[in-house]
Amino acid sequence: MRVTALLALAWVALLAGCSDESRPVLGGDAENGRLLLRQFGCIGCHRIPGVAGATGNVGPPLDGVGRRVYLAGVLPNSPANMMRWIRDPQSFGFETAMPDLQVTESQARDMVAYLQELK
Amino acid sequence: MLDNIQSALAPRGPEAAGILEITWVLVVGGALIFTLVLALTALAFFAPPRWLAGKGLIIGAGIVFPVITLAALLIYTLLAAPRLSAVEPADVTIEVVGHQWWWRVNYLDARGEVDFATANEIHLPVGRTVELRLRSADVLHSFWVPSLAGKLDLIPGKDNRLRLAATEAAVLRGQCAEYCGGPHAQMALFVVAEAPERFEAWRAAQRQPAAIAAEDAADSEAASGRRLFLSHCTTCHTVRGTRAEGELGPDLTHFASRLSLGAGILPNNRATVAGWIAGNQHLKPDNLMPEFRFDSGELRTLAHWLETLE
């Protein structure tokens, strides 16, 4: 019994330690985002854990992108910046091979919800 | 739209429906006989009646029953077989040539000449008989669209003919069903079955060369994308209406009208086509297209032009 209680306590402590208060989240449906990442063909260029067929190596792999500090090496990684990047990567004024795919705001929000979970 | 797009259990034509019917007769019939044998075995173990040891059962269940059942099944399958491939003359004739690892699709005219070429996508009019002439350019492949018909091999040096019809409008998926080396698993295709008038509109549009002239004035990005294409891609690809007349890879005249890229493996949009040009060996290892190292602006420009080829 005592061991079980200790384990439970340790688990609660672990969960508390995981909470990441520093990143504001924008909501969004992560599961739908995962499907959209496939449908829009993000998989052609990026390796994305949990997305079928995502073997591309044209752009950076997205494993751990939720913890990455800069997006595209320049933008501070926040859900808002990630959404803007997905919707219009050309709008930041520097050269990138990533095209604008006419992703809607709510689609981008769902994609970000999934990507920000990749720690 | 994408439910059951590649399932022999969801037939969209009489040929596939016939195969499914035979499958059910065999599976259900086999299960019934198996259950009966198990019941007799249990009876023999736990409460053997006298008749179970007699000659009657051996003659009846061992000889008469199999002879009658197998003869009936033989007659049934012989009668069912003609339904597995349509016999009516075809309204549309399409030559499908298997390549490592994609499908060349040539629509033929009344004289059997190539009317126009496309790739990795077949459009059919619903309710009409379609004849597919299956050929191979290199090794064995097998054409299999489970919702429409059974498999038929593409054999080097031989023309195989498959007649089929679609009974409802649907987007279906098929794939190569005979191991053909390397990325065989990534050799897929889409079949778009559509109402006859929509099919005719599609066919009329596919016959046209690519619309080039109008775009130069309106869209300078497209024009520079086209210049890049013409200086790098013409050895292997054709775009009718330009001087690109390569035959090694798929005809790209109406590339943007297709659902997929890389023989059914990626959705077709300007991001995936850019990813394909720059990194196709990661997406489909050993395919015959080289990777190109354009700078990022050029890559976007080229992808943009390809996506104007409606």
Automatic annotation (TrEMBL), chain A:
Domain called Cytochrome c: residue spans: 28-119
Keywords for the protein's UniProt record, in alphabetical order: Heme, Iron, Metal-binding
Claim: ATP-binding is one of the keywords in the record: no
Protein name: C-type cytochrome
Cross-referenced PROSITE patterns: CYTC (PS51007), PROKAR_LIPOPROTEIN (PS51257)
SUPFAM superfamilies registered for this protein in UniProt: Cytochrome c
Keyword Kinase among UniProt keywords: no
From TrEMBL, chain B:
SUPFAM superfamilies assigned to the protein according to its UniProt record, in alphabetical order: Cupredoxins (SSF49503), Cytochrome c (SSF46626)
Keyword vocabulary terms for this entry: Copper, Electron transport, Heme, Iron, Membrane, Metal-binding, Transmembrane, Transmembrane helix, Transport
Superkingdom field: Bacteria
Reactions the enzyme catalyzes: 4 Fe(II)-[cytochrome c] + O2 + 8 H(+)(in) = 4 Fe(III)-[cytochrome c] + 2 H2O + 4 H(+)(out)
Bilayer-spanning residue ranges: 22-45, 57-79
Subcellular location: Membrane
One family name in Pfam for this protein: COX2
Domain Cytochrome c: 220-310
Start and end residues of each Cytochrome oxidase subunit II copper A binding domain: 89-205
Family of the protein in this entry: Belongs to the cytochrome c oxidase subunit 2 family.
PANTHER family: CYTOCHROME C OXIDASE SUBUNIT 2 (PTHR22888:SF9), CYTOCHROME C OXIDASE, SUBUNIT II (PTHR22888)
Name of the protein: C-type cytochrome
